[in-house]
Specification:
Layout (H helix, E strand, L loop, with lengths): L1 H15 L8 H11 L4 E4 L5 E5 L6 E7 L4 E7 L5 E6 L11 E5 L5 E7 L8 H4 L9 E3 L4 H7 L5 E4 L4 E2 L4 E4 L2 H17 L7 E7 L7 H10 L3 E9 L8 H4 L9 E3 L6 H14 L4 E3 L9 H6 L6 E9 L7 E4 H20 L4
Helix pairs in contact: 1-2, 1-5, 5-10, 8-10
Length: 352
C-alpha cells in the first residue's frame, strides 16, 4: 500500500509540474529523484535524463518517453501590458480562449494569467464562425503595464495551469498527459526491472523536446547505443464522437495499451510484444493507422546511428494536445507490465 501511495504521489507531482518543450527542468528533477534510488542516473548536453541498469553491458535496450509538454513563450508585450505568445509544440487554437495559464519568469516567479479574445458580442457574424489565430489572442495578467514589465520579459515560458484530477476511479484528466504519463510508465518499469536478475543493460530515458522535432531522442541514441528500443507515448483514442474507426482504428480507454504495427516499428519487436502480452494475459490493442507514423520519437530512433529495432506502445488518450487530456490508469498499469515482461523475455531468451 505504501508503494502504491508513493507511485500515485509521484504521478500527481509529475502531472502538476511544468515542462514546456525546451524548459523541462521542473519535471526532470522529479523523474531524477524517483529513479535515483535504484539506477545510475545522469543527464546529457540536451538535458535528457537517463536511468540505467547494468551500464557495463554491451547489449542494451532503451525505453523512453518524452517529458516535454506543449506550451508557449512570450514574444511581445504591448503598451497595455498584454502578452502575446508563440507555441512550443502543436496547439489547437480553438481550445485556447478562456484558458488559465502560468507565466514562468526568468527569476523563477510564477504569474497567473488568462487567455483572452474579443467577446462574441462585438464580433461580426462572419467572425464568429472563424477559429481565432494565435496572434489575435493575448494573455491578461490583470496587472499594470509597469508591473508586467518589472516581472515578465520576452522569452518567458507559459504553461497551462495544473489541473490533474480523477474523473472516476480509473480515469485521470490533466494537461500534459502527452507524454508525462509515458514518463510515469518507464519510471515504474525500470523500478520493477531493478529487482530482476538481468544480464542485458536497460536504460529508461525521459527525453526532451519531442514536441519541437524529436530532438532528445536523436541525441540519446548516441549516448546509449541500444540495439532495441521501446517508446511509450500517447495515442488517439477513438471512443468519442466523430472520429472514424475505419480510418484511425478502434482504440478505447481501458482496453489496454496499443501495440503499433506501422512502419516505425520493427516486425520482430511487434511480434515479441504480442506474444508476451498473450502469454502474460495483458490486454492490448493493435493499431496500424498512419497518422502517427513519423510523429513520435520512434521514427527518429529507428534510423539513428546503425539503426535500432523499435517498438511504440501508445497509451490511449482523449482530447490530445488540449488542457483536458484523459487517460485510463488500467492502460498505464498494463503498459508497465507489458514492458517488464517483454524485457524479461528478451533477457531470458538472449534475443540481444
Amino acid at each position: 500500500m505504501k508503494k502504491i501511495l508513493e507511485e500515485r504521489l509521484f504521478l500527481e507531482k509529475l502531472m502538476n509540474s511544468y515542462s514546456v518543450s525546451g524548459f523541462e527542468e521542473d519535471a526532470l528533477v522529479l523523474y531524477e529523484e524517483y529513479v535515483k534510488p535504484f539506477s545510475k542516473v545522469f543527464r546529457d548536453s540536451l538535458n535528457n535524463c537517463y536511468a540505467v541498469l547494468n551500464s557495463s553491458s554491451s547489449k542494451r535496450i532503451l525505453i523512453e518517453a518524452h517529458i516535454d509538454e506543449i506550451g508557449f513563450q512570450v514574444t511581445y508585450i504591448d503598451d497595455m501590458g498584454f502578452l502575446y505568445v508563440r507555441q512550443n509544440g502543436g496547439i489547437d487554437c480553438a481550445t485556447l480562449p478562456g484558458s488559465i495559464v502560468e507565466i514562468h519568469t526568468s527569476d523563477n516567479k510564477v504569474v497567473p494569467g488568462v487567455i483572452g479574445k474579443r467577446p462574441i458580442h462585438v464580433q461580426k457574424p462572419d467572425e464568429r464562425a472563424k477559429v481565432v489565430e494565435l496572434e489575435e489572442l493575448w494573455i491578461d495578467t490583470g496587472l499594470s503595464k509597469e508591473n508586467v514589465l518589472e516581472m515578465i520579459s520576452v522569452g518567458d515560458v507559459v504553461s497551462f495551469r495544473p489541473n490533474y484530477f480523477f474523473i472516476d476511479e480509473n480515469r485521470i484528466v490533466s494537461k500534459g498527459l502527452d507524454d508525462k504519463i509515458g514518463v510515469f510508465v518507464i519510471a515504474e518499469a525500470i523500478r520493477r526491472l531493478s529487482k530482476e536478475n538481468l544480464h542485458i543493460g536497460v536504460c529508461a530515458v525521459a527525453t526532451v523536446q519531442e514536441e519541437v522535432g524529436c530532438k532528445g531522442a536523436k541525441v540519446c541514441v548516441g549516448n546509449i547505443e541500444p540495439q532495441m528500443s521501446i517508446s511509450v507515448d500517447v495515442g488517439f483514442a477513438t471512443d468519442v464522437p466523430n472520429i472514424s474507426k475505419k480510418k484511425y482504428g478502434d482504440i478505447a480507454l481501458g482496453r489496454g495499451p496499443v501495440i503499433n504495427c506501422n512502419t516505425d516499428c520493427n516486425r520482430e519487436m511487434v511480434n515479441i510484444a504480442r506474444s508476451v502480452a498473450k502469454d502474460a494475459g495483458v490486454d492490448v490493442q493493435l493499431n496500424a493507422n498512419s497518422i502517427s507514423t513519423g510523429g513520435t520519437n520512434t521514427a527518429s530512433l529507428q534510423v539513428s546511428s546503425k539503426g535500432v529495432k523499435t517498438l511504440l506502445l501508445s497509451i490511449p488518450n482523449r482530447y490530445m494536445h488540449t488542457q483536458v487530456e484523459m487517460c485510463d490508469l488500467r492502460d498505464v498499469e498494463s503498459a508497465i507490465e507489458l514492458i517488464v515482461e517483454t524485457i524479461l523475455f528478451i533477457n531470458t531468451n538472449k534475443l540481444l
